[in-house]
Amino acid sequence: MTRAQYLPTLLIIINLLSAVLYCIDGDWRKTVYWTAAACLTFVVTF
């Protein structure tokens, strides 16, 4: 992993943690939103 990929990786982790918290809370729309945001960041970064 290069130094330029550290911040996007941290962003992916934060997005996935947000998705997990919304999933636990039962808010499926926000769960899908944050999961898609993490996937999009992953695809663009790697």
Overview of this structure, please?
By secondary structure, the chain is mostly helical. The protein has one domain. It is built from two helices and no strands. The radius of gyration is 11 Å and the shape is elongated. The termini are close together. The model has no long low-confidence stretch (mean pLDDT 97).
Strand content: under 5%
Number of helices: 2
Any low-confidence stretches, pLDDT <50, length ≥5? none
Can you write the helix and strand succession as a string? HH
Structural class: mainly alpha
**Major β-sheet annotation:** none
Q: In angstroms, what is the radius of gyration?
A: 11 Å
**Tally of strands:** 0
Basic shape: elongated
The total number of structural domains is: 1
The share of residues in helices is over 70%
Arithmetic mean pLDDT: 97
Termini separation: 10 Å
Concise structural overview:
The N and C termini lie close together (10 Å). The chain contains two helices and no strands.
